[in-house]
Amino acid sequence: MQVLAVASEIYPLVKTGGLADVAGALPLALGEIGVQVKSLMPAYPAVLPKLGGAPAHEVLAIPDLFGGPARVLEARHAGLDLLLLDAPHLYDRLGGPYISETGADHPDNWARFAALSKAAALIADGAIPGFQPNILHAHDWQAGLAPVYVAFGGGRRVRSVMTIHNLAFQGAFAPEVFAKLGLPRSAWSLEGVEYYGSVGFLKGGLHAADVVTTVSPTYAEEILTGEGGMGLDGLLAGRGNRLVGIVNGIDTDAWDPETDAALAATYTTETLARRQENKRALEAEFGLPPADTPIFCVISRLTWQKGMDVLCEAVDDIVASGVRLCIFGSGDRMIEGAFLAAHGRHPQAVGVRIGYDEALAHRIQGGADAIIIPSRFEPCGLTQLCGLRYGCVPVVSRVGGLADTVINANHAAVQSNVATGTIFAPVTAKSLHDAVVRTRNLFNEPALWQAMQKRGMATDVSWSVSAARYADLYRDLLKEGAQ
Fold it and tell me: What CATH number matches the domain at 269-458, 3.40.50.970, 3.40.50.2000, 3.30.160.20, 3.40.50.2300?
């Protein structure tokens, strides 16, 4: 079995969010169980230099790809077999993968990611000698047209999987774009890419793919509702059993408190007391005086979806309850400003870092006592899985993958020794504050708290189970195709 995975970002080459983590870790886990994966992504300016001495060689030339020549380069990096779409007219520019240096979307994002999808369809049709994928696995709207190009292209009908990482981001563009996509007229339809008069990249992929997956079972249920479906609930409901929820995992080699070089002190469940060294280091890094009171952290995009405005509202009450905060992330400027203002009001209890740094995320998970994730919706979430792995107890809202991966410390769960975190609902300042207080009370019982930390650290948050489910899904699709 050979799989062509298509994603706009892959860790460790490019990362803006959890999509990159999944796109980087899932192929490695699949490889361990005999599924060969090549991953296609754009060759952004930062990508090729990161390959170091690893050679990248051309395996496909495309004379004209949305306004200029392109080529596909093959390389291997960090255990990943990569196909890099080198198209300077589309990707060689300042800014990030999706936005310019001014913070606005690149105006030609439709072309940049249609090109990624078109290249994927060419490769799926056998354009690279010696590589004939059986499965095309597209991730999020940026790869959403890949199953569409396969379905409407008239070439080899490779089986396809479309994975939703966040339904809120759909890749909708003006109708004038359709004429430039190189799709037949029949694709401008409800069975194609037409979506309320616009071109819907994700919508097209959801309709064209043989199977749609999303990144947790609960989120798969939530997106069938009017509230969670973001306008696509009807289409998704129509997919029936072709919509599958498979919870994400994390790379447990990269996230391993026993070997993590980013930490001041490594530790295991047997040497949990060494976490205290990381807490002292975290206090120093965030300018907080050493203290025995708990530190609750945030590692997140600072946005409405993530419930960060609710946390802003609750900050003063949380500090008054004897809990300190380390806030790390970036996003909405007003929310960033609100957290910086909270630091100004409580300089010895609230530390704030605006930005993102992978090593700092590791140090925070290794030193904070708990991690707050108050998302209004959360397809899966990865930071709570990292928190479990590092003994940083999750405090999460009862949505999506958060509800699927954390066992709430209610009375029965605590008495039965199964609790791994605190779950709350609804997403309000009062409900969040109450959850923080409940978690602080657990922290104040050291034996109970350490037992909960150890249960979290013993939880299997790897890709092993989920990768096996994807492999089974691929095999079922191939059996269908052979009938």
Answer: 3.40.50.2000
